[in-house]
Design a protein that fits this description.
This protein is mostly helical. The protein contains 3 helices and no strands. The chain starts with 29 loop residues before the first helix and ends with a helix.
Length: 86
């Protein structure tokens, strides 16, 4: 087996990865989020495990809404028929 030159691993970050939070402002966007009416929902840990990101949660909720609408339409039609048969 050939032994190539081993690279030294540097523990230094590149200059563009500057994590200087000394000028950070806590709650900087808080007011804007409230004004825009953002909906923030906290998921329970067991539910959160089922979703990889917010898009997955939104897709699941849209599917549930579509199913609910379909079920309501089917139920409305069947109950009208039942009343008419009486």
């Amino acid at each position: 087996m050939g032994q190539g030159k081993s690279k030294k691993i540097s523990n230094e970050l590149r200059p563009e990865y500057n994590f200087d939070y000394s000028k950070a402002v806590r709650g900087k966007y808080y007011k804007r989020i409230l004004d825009e009416g953002a909906n923030v929902v906290m998921l329970e840990p067991d539910v959160a495990k089922a979703f990889v990101d917010s898009a997955a949660v939104n897709d699941a909720l849209r599917s549930l809404l579509n199913l609910t609408r379909t079920t309501q339409r089917l139920t409305k039609h069947s109950s009208k028929r039942a009343i008419a048969r009486r």
